[in-house]
């Protein structure tokens, strides 16, 4: 009671409150091509695109931007120095690719000073950053739900060890178990008044667990999802059979024959997403040095422009 009264009576100026909020929940600008809007904890960002469109690579770059410090021994890295929890539902992420991408960022930031001073302190920085990269993989929705339910205790333990809370929850990809869950029986009530798991109830449980998690551990959520494209007739047919609807269509004529994007996830997840970015492959004629070109389109909130990017021979994302 005394603690509650002291908290209520505490004086805090608007400037002090703003500094505290921005320190605890800083705005972050993700690396290109997701750099157009500043984001903060509590935002649910969905990255939608066909395979391949470098969705995982974009997620890795966002994670590295989070685990790197802002400054280390006089060298600017521009990171947040916060932990990232990466949930691999596709079960295809090679953590070695994360470490290699991190090494490249450290080398690029150091430039000639790395050759001059050696790489001992860069190795120390690399190890500190990798300790902030928390990784797990799940093979079905039930394992994913179990991970979300126990994530609170893991993040709490890591916060004590790291001294700072995790800033980012990455899910790759949220629609990985769609067809497995769709094969579950329709939602109904059993003999013990317990709901039978279905695509809808699983999606509701996932959203509910993420909401509960964010109440205790405010984080920015990034979720990749494979895109489904088709003409108007085929999209209508799929929506009619699946019982879902979507009004998201692309106006970017540079996309693959301007086919509309249709959302196959249950509405409970669609309404949960606060930001949605669509990745589109260009037509076969639009290439950059014989590499396919991709375009980004912000669906939510809608923006009137798009960015283009490609993947070079080294597997690096290059903004055009």
TrEMBL record:
Domain RecA family profile: 20-234
Disordered: region residues: 239-262
InterPro entries tied to this protein: P-loop_NTPase, RecA_ATP-bd, XRCC2
CDD domains named among the record's database cross-references: XRCC2 (cd19490)
Protein name in the entry: RecA family profile 1 domain-containing protein
């Amino acid at each position: 009671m005394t603690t509650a009264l002291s908290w209520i009576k505490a004086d805090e100026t608007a400037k002090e409150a703003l500094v505290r909020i921005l320190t605890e929940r800083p705005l972050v600008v993700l690396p290109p091509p997701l750099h157009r809007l500043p984001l903060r904890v509590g935002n649910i960002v969905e990255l939608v695109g066909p395979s391949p469109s470098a969705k995982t690579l974009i997620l890795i770059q966002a994670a590295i931007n989070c685990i790197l410090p802002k400054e280390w021994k006089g060298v600017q890295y521009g990171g947040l120095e916060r932990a990232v929890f990466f949930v691999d539902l596709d079960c295809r992420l090679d953590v070695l690719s994360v470490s290699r991408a991190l090494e490249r960022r450290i080398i690029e930031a150091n430039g000639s000073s790395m050759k001059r001073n050696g790489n001992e302190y860069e190795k120390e920085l690399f190890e500190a950053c990798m300790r902030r990269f928390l990784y797990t993989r799940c093979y079905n929705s039930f394992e994913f739900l179990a991970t979300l339910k126990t994530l609170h205790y893991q993040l709490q333990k890591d916060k004590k060890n790291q001294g700072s809370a995790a800033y980012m929850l990455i899910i790759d990809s949220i629609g990985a178990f769609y067809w497995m869950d769709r094969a579950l029986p329709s939602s109904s009530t059993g003999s013990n008044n317990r709901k039978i798991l279905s695509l809808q109830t699983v999606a509701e449980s996932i959203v509910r667990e993420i909401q509960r998690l964010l109440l205790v551990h405010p984080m920015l959520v990034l979720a990749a999802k494979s895109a489904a494209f088709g003409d108007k007739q085929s999209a209508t047919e799929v929506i009619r059979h699946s019982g879902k609807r979507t009004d998201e269509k692309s106006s970017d004529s540079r996309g693959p024959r301007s086919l509309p994007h249709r959302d196959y996830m249950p509405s409970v997840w669609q309404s949960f997403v606060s930001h949605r970015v669509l990745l589109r492959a260009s037509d076969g004629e639009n290439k950059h040095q014989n590499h396919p070109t991709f375009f980004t389109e912000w669906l939510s909130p809608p923006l009137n422009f798009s960015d283009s990017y490609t993947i070079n021979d080294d597997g690096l994302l290059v903004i055009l």
